[in-house]
């Protein structure tokens, strides 16, 4: 009881954070891969032929990178929330150890 008061055995905060960091990595990987294809395509065509495509790709790329950043922030916030939760839980457990609740009469 001195280790944890109510904290679960598995770290759900960390598990969720890992998922969001994996999503971030996949989005950035996709953008990098698509950038290579975009450069190959636009390098073989005249700029007038690819103007609309380039505009579309720039918007999609920015959207995907923004999404990756949001997943990174969410993952980091989950890690912080988990750390705060476990610290608070430990503090409560320690306090209860120092000042036990008297038995009911």
UniProtKB/TrEMBL annotation:
Residues 1-21 are annotated as: Disordered. It comes from Tengunoibacter tsumagoiensis. SUPFAM superfamilies: EsxAB dimer-like (SSF140453). It comes from the Bacteria. Residues 9-21 have a biased composition (Basic and acidic residues). This is Uncharacterized protein. InterPro entries: ESAT-6-like_sf (IPR036689).
């Amino acid at each position: 009881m001195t280790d944890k008061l109510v904290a679960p055995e598995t770290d759900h905060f960390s598990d969720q954070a890992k998922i969001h960091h994996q999503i971030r990595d996949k989005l950035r990987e996709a953008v990098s891969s698509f950038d290579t294809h975009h450069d190959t395509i636009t390098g073989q065509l005249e700029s007038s032929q690819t103007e609309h495509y380039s505009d579309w790709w720039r918007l999609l790329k920015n959207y995907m990178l923004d999404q990756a950043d949001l997943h990174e922030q969410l993952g980091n916030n989950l890690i912080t929330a988990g750390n705060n939760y476990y610290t608070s839980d430990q503090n409560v457990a320690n306090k209860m150890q120092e000042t036990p609740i008297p038995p009911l009469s």
